[in-house]
Amino acid sequence: MEEAVMTPRQDKQGKQDKDAEPAGGSGPRQGKDEYAVIRMYEAREQIYPREIKGRYASLRWLCVFLTQLVFYGMPWINWNGRQAVLFDLAARKFYLFGLVLWPQDFIWLAALLIICAFGLFLFTAVAGRVWCGYACPQTVYTEIFMWIERRIEGARSARMRLDRQPWSFEKLWRKSAKHLAWGALALWTGLSFVGYFSPMRELLPELAAFAFGPWELFWILFYALATYGNAGWMREQVCKYMCPYARFQSAMFDRDSLIITYDGARGEPRMPQAKAARLGAGAPAGDCIDCTLCVQVCPTGIDIREGLQYMCIGCAACVDACDSVMDKIKRPRGLIRYSTENAVEQGLPASAIRRRLLRPRILIYTAILGAVAALFAGSLWVRTPVKLDVIRDRGSMGREVEDGIIENVYRLQIINTDERGHRYRITATGIAGLAVAPADAIDIAATQTLSVPVRVRAPHGAGESGSNKIRFELRDEEDPTLRVSEKAVFIVPRP
Ligand code: SF4
Ligand code: SF4
Asked: How far is the CA of 311 from the centre of ligand 2 (A)?
């Protein structure tokens, strides 16, 4: 993007004072141009990352495989006769295997998000951008898309050659095949995404008949387009310019966090082996042979030898590349490695790096994460699969019926969050002789909500005039330990 910007000595018509210094004082003159053209954004240079094999590349592929096995596979798993994981927004129920969450249970979803956030903080403080390098969807899909690209267009040099050459039949079919494969994968990704919100096994016949609802179609195409655009075209630009996590994750780092580092003390002065040989044995040659392989494999196109940069996503491709070079030239691995700023500067051994793990920041994150996780698990464990809400009938205050008996009317909202039906008996306590009508037990089907009007009666003379605290209790007829209670107010009219 280019934007014309007037220099300070220009008038509104853009006429320039001939004696004026160019913008920036001693900067280069703009010649006779009336406008200085400033590029607000650097033009993107196409990056052709070289494929690399190694321990970290294998680890990343393992993460790609596992995360995508979960993502694509989960909508196909059934549980209790329905989809195991389904966020049914229309029915406002979230199914997570045996757990059914209702809007009232959003506290658990909030707790889950807090756990994920603190997990991310902890991992980042310990090991830098491991999330970005191995499990972030942007990394994962870029990896898959690049894999397809390599299979169709060839290795790095072949891809560069293909892009430089004019259009030909070969270029056309290779480019078309790549985009078709990308498009098919992106569409399947969009379909799988929607499968978390709309049952997957119903989506497929709709796909065959091309009879999606408008919202399903919108989200499938939207997600597919986002995947295709981000992983196929934008790639490292998403990490560099769009990702909010890239902006604030440095606040979680410190000098003892693991990062990908180049050991300058060992590597410099860098020079090709031929030059080092020419200079002789006494020459001050470092271990870096300046082969630039670490730069060629970098998906964000940076040179890690220039120091820690925010564009580095911590993928460790350069570590694999440099290790392979060190193996070839028979030097120890680890010229580029996972280390900490303190360790590289002070030459700390691995044991000291491990010891420095237990610093206050890590302990605080771990404590918070552990506490929230324990609360989350404990509250889920004691969770009863029934909820009770009591609404007083505001239309009728407490009133006297036959024989001086006082009656209040309520509406009980009972939510059975369980996936099997229950039979509950309703009782009320708080005033001697309280009776609830109807006295029969209430049947409530699996995952159903029932609104039950009840009348509560207190004998003549029981309770104080005005409001009295009472408590409704719902107790399962078969399993008395399954019960829930809710407080309410019983009004005794003043005489
Ligand atoms: S791969 Fe290693 S040896 Fe080659 S340029 Fe990079 S740091 Fe130097
Ligand atoms: S510098 Fe190394 S770790 Fe960082 S993004 Fe590039 S290849 Fe990955």
From this structure: 8
Is residue 441 a contact partner of residue 414, using CB atoms and an 8 Å limit?
no
pTM of the model: 0.82
* Coil, helix or strand at residue 410: strand
pLDDT in tens, 226-275: 999 999 999 989 998 888 888 777 788 889 999 999 999 999 899 898 88
CA 263 to centroid of ligand 1, rounded, Å: 11
Closest residue by Cα to residue 16 from 2, 30, 26: 30
One DSSP character per residue, 476-488 reads ESS-TT-EEEEEE
Dist CA 129 CA 312 (whole Å): 8
Pocket test for ligand 1, best of 312, 329, 335 (most atoms within 8 A of CB): 335
CA of 293 to the centre of ligand 1 (A): 6
Distance CA 372, CA 365 (A): 11
Q: Using alpha carbons only, how large is the chain's radius of gyration in Å?
A: 34
Neighbours of 283 (CB within 10 A): 12
Locate tokens 């993502």: which residue? 71
Residue 339 DSSP class: E
Centroid of ligand 1 to alpha carbon of 143 (angstroms): 22
pLDDT single digits (tens) 118-137:
999 899 999 988 999 999 99
- For ligand 2, atom 6, which residue shows the shortest CA distance? 298
